[in-house]
Input
Amino acid sequence: MHGPVSFEVIAKDLAGRIGRLYTKSGAVETPALFPVVDPRKQEIPVDVIRRYFGQVITNSYFVYRLAGGKPVQVKRLLGWDGVVMTDSGAYQILRYGTVDVDPDEILFYQSQIGSDVGVILDLPFDYEEPYDSAVLKVEETLRRAKRAATLLDSMNMLVVAPIQGALYTDLLVRSTRELTKLGFHIFAIGSPTTLLEEYKFDLVLNIVAEVKLHMAREAPLHLFGAGHPLILPFAVALGVDLFDSASYVLYARDDRVILRDRTIRLDDVKTDYLPCNTKLCNISVKELKEMPQQERAVLIAEHNLAILKEELLEIKQRIYEGTLWEYLEAKARAHPALYRFLKSLYRYRRLLENFDPETHPEPHGLFFFDDTASSRPEPVRHQARLMEVEPAAKKAVVLKVSEKPYNRSWQYRLIKNIAGNDVHVLFFDPVFGVVPEEVAEVYPLSQNEAEGESEEARAYLYAWLEKYDVVFTYNIDIPLISKKVIPLRSLDDLAQYSYV
Output
């Protein structure tokens, strides 16, 4: 199976998108999670998983070992009739250092056992890997990928190419650019597992952003090992389409209950019932603690699956609404690493601006907060548009008003009555910096509410004012020394300066 994958984009917000990934066994709506199923021991009945997800991922290396290298039908082995993705055994390399199978052999094996989506056998490494050995593993992964690319025509499945590099940006960028040239159907971010286990979400998200900057725009992107509601919306906002995780069952083994904004241990619950709305939450905590461990683990695992599905549904609805950023604002306060990342996202705001649709089917009001506003794509887009706006006069009046649209305020009408077109009226906006009168009603300059004032907005206003010979100010302090700045105590005073 070669050529571009059939991936249809339905809706977009930021760099996130809702789409359909077409496989030989049917379509998967993205963003999608593939729950991990162990072919050696299925702790959670597949019927339970099927209630929440139509796709799973299993380890083809385990299947290979179980079957003695002979092809078996993986769906029959798992008792699964939906879409199946298989990993190649790379995680075992990460954990144990090696696997006794040839990269070509395990790739062909995945196709032979009926996988819908297979993964090449790469060489993953965690973020503490020394640079010299990381270089060798990236180069070997690229060598294997180039070899696998010549075999795509003989594969009856979609093939995933993992991108390696971890926290070494130069290796990450090289890996991304080289793999993008090879025609794989799907790309994946490899070996972030250790970072995810340590809740270093900001480092993982930085990796995602760097990959998205340098990969093919249209290709689906998978993030290995991400299975917590805290990171899912941020990863989707950066352009991740697919996830896989065993968190639902791993957490359940330890009596850890996943909630939308955190994870809690059953022993730490002091209320009579868990604070949630799944089937598990209708059983008293006392009764849960008294259950046999395996019975309790199945219930908690099902709950965890339900929460993960609920989170993905929330993300999809947010994309349709165009309110994904507002959701990130609320979600970021649940963990310092997420809040830290959101505040620093201005480093990648060009990425978001390039992917984010300028309008949505049903435009809505936006909410801005001073510590994260500069990271959003809308101020970047506004500043780019202003590059096409020329000053309408050599004199400007800068004022701060509360009524929106700004050009419908009484202050604006009074200025135009006094000075007409002799002055260019500019409104100071705490997010967008400067709003010239002629664009004051352009979306979303009037359709937003802001809390606080961003430093970047002030800086942009000051830079914009360099275009004028004289600047009048009203209801705003502008300490410019390179221009003639005249504060107005009253707008009526403007009439005194007609000679200026």
